[in-house]
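B., you asked whether I could sanity-check this one before it goes into the benchmark set. Here's the sequence:
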Amino acid sequence: MFAFKRLIAVAGAAVTLAAPAHAAVPAVNARAFFVVDDTTGDVLAQHAANTRLPVASITKLMTVLVTLEHARLSDVVTVRRQAAAVGESTINLRPGERITVRELLAGALIQSANDAADALADYVGHGNDAAFVAMMNADAKRLGLFGTHFVRPDGLDAPGHVSTARDVTRLAQELMKRPVVRALVRARSATIAGGRTLHTWNDLLGVFRGLVGVKTGHTGGAGWCQVAEVKRDGLDVYATILGSPTRGGRNADLAALLRWAFAVERPAWIIAPGRVYVRVAAGYGRAAIPLVAAQPLLRVVRVDRPLVERVLAPAAVKLPVHRGDRLGEVRVFSGQTLVGRRPLVAARSVSRPGVFGRLGFYGGRTFSHIGAWFR
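And here's what the prediction gave me:
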């Protein structure tokens, strides 16, 4: 068995010999940010990602999660006075009004309505806000959001009500597994009970290609915040930004982070279909046998991190060999990390010659050696 290494790098959608130049992570005027590839789990960029900060209405993602775990979309909620009285962003719920859970979810997720979030908490907590908040914190612990602590279901500023850019991203990833959430957060507007028309606060929705959500937030204490998911060009990226000083600055910085992420990553055939990785000697004068990968491997990779390919195969093989016989392996590394491996198999069959064929081969070699003596 022999092995050799080959340095490779990624550009476009295939493994090539040179990586393109790329820009550094853009400068961001915010307290924290976090960018991660949802497919691979690779963290692409971060700043103060584990710092506990107020997160404003991004809180409503946890309110929605707890609601979905304990209520049905068709359940009808009777709005209580406390929920209807909450201020700032609302859908103007009235005390005693009856409205479905699904419509309240739309109000909380699309228009970021505080009264919708508080009405959901009141319904699920059976009128006990503290009980609902305890459910929120229990789910945070279950999800491993150890930098998170909730005090309110709506995200209005309150002492001790904090999360982190990393935790917010993890929460968004969990919520986006639910079809009803995915449908609501990608809506720019909707009409619900009472003829109410909802409008999103997500300025990048419908503007930044591939953006499918997730949630914005703003309070005086939290600044301007957002967690976003973008799916395009074979990539799935989440980015969270917390504590931007202005709405426009948040939008510009978040868009810059997302553009950078899509420039620094590519889906690539790190193990290519049909490519001959090595040829091994077959003996008896037969042509060398080409080895190809049993299956190709397409993976999202960083264009700024060259890969190392290691091929392991025998110097020669015994005949017969049948097409598809496993004869080696190719492994691809990023630094010390194995990012992919595939068996190498014979691309064609080679039979073992019969007795007369083998005699002819050895006889030919003998005459060739004798002839060499007289040269």
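One thing to flag: The longest strand covers residues 2-11. Otherwise nothing jumped out at me.
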